[in-house]
Amino acid sequence: MNRISSTYKIIPICAMGIILNISGASLAKYLHLPIFLDTYGTFFIAALGGYVPGITVGFLTNLIGSWYEEEDMYFGLVSILLAMITTFLYQRGYYKTLPKIFLTIAITVFVATFLGTVIEELIFISEPFESLNKFWSHYHGNFLTEFPDKGLAILFTFAMMKIFPSDLKNEFAALGRKQAPIPSEMQRKLRAESKFIDSLRTKMIFNLIAITLIVAVSISAISYAIYHKSAVEERTRIADGIISMVVSEINPNRVDEFLELGHKAEGYNEVERNLYRIRASNSDIKFIYVYKIMEDGCHVVFDLDTATVDASKPGSVEEFDDAFLKYLPDLLAGRPIPPIPSNETYGNLLTIYKPVYNSVGKCVCYAGIDFSMDKITDYGRTFISKVVAVFAGALIFIFVLGLTFIENNIILPVNTMAFCARNFAYDSEADREKNIESIKSLDIKTNDEIENLYSAFVKMTADSMHHFNNLRKAKIEVAVMEELAHKDAMTGIKNKTSYGETIAKLDGKILSGDAQFCIIMIDINYLKRINDTYGHERGNEYLINACNLACDIFGKEDVYRVGGDEFVVVLDGEKVSTCEENVARLRATIEKFRADESLEAWEKVSTAVGVAYYEAGVDNSADEVFKRADSDMYKNKLAMKATRRD
């Protein structure tokens, strides 16, 4: 068999396995079966061709499936481990008899169910691992599906390997080898001579592990840092807008009167009701209060009750929190202070203080808001779990490919050459001829430097190639991660990072005097109601329907998802002329949805829309245009809430 051409036989073998997986999955969906039927190709090819073909089939099946079902990408790790277990057990004879097959089913189903349950808990459960009983209940439900599904796949593989011709099985088992089969005596002596600690194989395995771990940790850390920074900035922007509304409700000329008389002061109760309405406008607002900062502490002007915390009475004095002590000079002087994150008695909060100035510019009090950051923590856990699930499978796939490449192209050729060199006999012409024939019988054809060093037994150049190959793969992974960092995982449109780059480009055009753009702010109404009433799956569908509506009207390339329920459309250049017409289309469509009683609640997309155009000489940055669009959107949202009839 030609070992160079045999390498390319892996491609059709893998394609056959992938087709078998996809066909089985499609059949299961078409017949509405309670099992998946998507691992038959993985098991069969892993048993037939070994680790690399089996892992390739499993990984690529999930990758292809993720184009239609996003969840598939997170379970690539499960498919890879199934391929590795199958290869390991098959090579040790567990697919030869029925008793061992039943043991194989038990091992495989346990691993698949356990790992699949862990991934589902981390990614799809709001409170993962809440209790051991709930976890095992979840595990048991998955087991009832996995047992018949994986059991049938293993029995199918068992039957196929029984009827498959032996010569073909031997040929497939040798796929990827770069030299002739090694005699059993040489294999035995090579195993006896190998030293785990000092072997080249061990060193390269550790190098591969180190590289894959560094890549995995780096990508995960960078991804989470980008996500967390964007999420905190978004929360800060929202909170800053809300605190501005609170400030607008406070009459600076009456602060001392409110402080002294409290509820007895004329108009006090009306202001308090308005503050309650502001707090009710956003579920993430935990506390709203107005303090007059003095040397002895925070004098309460307004404080709102919550379900768990009673409000302080007007005129009472609150001690300074430790987090504010370093800002005390600024507070006493009436100067602004930056947002303060904290995670103490009242939870994970972002606190914003904003000064209230009177007509002569003197700070008479501070409006304060505590904005909950719990969602960032929850979303962050889910986000990093998804990243780890995706890249764990990808990196194992790359690791096995690299390890197999090393084994077939470097380790085995070098070891067999070294073995022949150590056992070269010079006693007679016949012995020398025999040894030469033994070396020739290796028939090493790596088609690279190793083949050139076949007669010199030097490995330095091949080792350098190995590292270069792994660095190239690492660069590919970084490029893939860069693309993922600019795309929203749920909707597939551009995300906040991409939006930030667009804003930076617009700022450049403003500086060069070549700017012509507008910004449309779209905020989805009633998302929380859909989630609470119909579940998060319908909520996600509602969110995606809203995204699709915006993309259909404005074009997918101009729509960005910048928050959980917020989208921004940026129209640049000649597209600005279409803004008014498209916004009208969007509003008309929303009104049409509202009046259509045949639609489900999650199909009746409702959004608040705000528009702002860049004005040369007025706007110094694109962010100023965005703020006007956001303000216009908020006015629209208030109007919609005032007139809604559902």
Short description:
By secondary structure, the chain is an alpha+beta fold. The chain has 22 helices and 10 strands. The protein folds into 3 domains: 1-175, Arp2/3 complex 21 kDa subunit ARPC3 (Orthogonal Bundle), CATH 1.10.1760; 241-378, Beta-Lactamase; 496-643, Alpha-Beta Plaits (2-Layer Sandwich), CATH 3.30.70.
Question: How does this model look, in words?
Answer:
- The protein has 646 residues and is of the alpha+beta class.
- It has three domains: 1-175, Arp2/3 complex 21 kDa subunit ARPC3 (Orthogonal Bundle), CATH 1.10.1760; 241-378, Beta-Lactamase (2-Layer Sandwich), CATH 3.30.450; 496-643, 2-Layer Sandwich (Alpha-Beta Plaits), CATH 3.30.70.
- It has helices at residues 3-7, 10-30, 40-49, 51-65, 76-91, 98-124, 132-163, 166-173, 184-193, 200-249, 255-261, 268-280, 328-333, 374-422, 429-442, 449-452, 460-484, 496-512, 527-534, 536-554, 579-595, 622-643, and strands at 285-294, 297-303, 317-318, 340-344, 347-357, 363-372, 517-524, 559-561, 566-572, 607-613.
- The strands form two sheets. The protein has a six-stranded antiparallel beta sheet.
- The longest helix has 50 residues, at 200-249.
